[in-house]
Write a structure and sequence with these properties.
- It is a single chain.
- By secondary structure, the chain is of the alpha+beta class.
- It is 50% helix and 15% strand.
- The protein contains seven helices and nine strands.
- The protein is globular.
- 17% of the residues are buried.
- The mean pLDDT is 81.
Length: 236
């Protein structure tokens, strides 16, 4: 589901995301007062949410952002032990207040829903035609990586076309477009595999998986060099 949401914030410049048992909820800043909502859920729940009034939808959204009932006690205890360990043998990362923003209203008429599906074209190019962005690949909407991959496609295609012109070859000739395809797929395929794995990992409520993913994310957060490399790679 997608929508525009008004919120109460002095500085609406930070994207916010929470993983729920049905899928992630993301708020992406648009301006000082509005954010774009991307709410991933199953078909049955999406149908229910679409049928709600704007006020009821806002209540359901706030409940999904704030509710704690899905938390696993075992995972909570494991995180407490990890925090003590990091505090004793290392340096804790800076603590930020990680609470949801205050949502005040739904932009009237902005709610919509569409199905999500992982998709990848077997070929990106034929003579004089090149696929880029969502025309070539579709991934789950995690951290805005889909649009980043589209930007990378544009960069790779531009480099291939420049090389075509520099060589005096016909623009759109297949040999040079195949260079774009190779470069683009080397970027796209690993990211698609990683995002799909994360989606599957966060779609389960199996307690051992919940504990492992919680410990893993907190360890990454505590390791500044590793966290920096992941953020750099995600930003492409």
């Amino acid at each position: 589901m997608v929508s525009y949401i008004f919120l109460q914030a002095q500085d609406n410049s930070v994207a916010w995301q929470r993983f729920t048992s049905l899928g992630p909820i993301a708020l992406l800043p648009l301006d000082e007062k509005r954010s774009s909502l991307v709410w991933s859920t199953n078909t049955e729940d999406a149908t229910r949410l679409l049928a709600l009034s704007d006020e009821e939808f806002l209540d359901a959204l706030n409940q999904a952002l704030w509710e704690e009932q899905d938390k696993k006690q075992l995972a909570g205890r494991a995180l407490e032990y990890l925090d003590r360990f990091i505090g004793k043998f290392g340096q804790r990362p800076a603590n930020f207040q990680q609470i949801p923003p205050t949502l005040t209203a739904v932009d009237k008429g902005s709610r919509a829903a569409f199905p999500l599906a992982l998709g990848h074209a077997t070929r990106y190019v034929v003579p004089h035609v090149a696929l880029i962005g969502d025309a070539a690949h579709r991934i789950h909407p995690l951290a805005g990586l889909g649009v980043n991959l589209g930007f990378e496609d544009v960069t790779a295609l531009r480099a291939a076309l420049r090389k075509t012109v520099a060589c005096g070859a016909e623009v759109g000739s297949l040999p040079h477009l195949l260079q774009y395809e190779t470069q683009a797929q080397r970027t796209v395929v690993p990211v698609m595999a990683a995002v799909d794995s994360l989606h599957r990992l966060y779609s389960t409520q199996w307690t051992p998986a919940v504990v492992l993913r919680s410990l893993g994310l907190n360890l990454v957060n505590a390791c500044e060099p590793l966290k920096g490399r992941i953020m750099q790679h995600a930003s492409l």
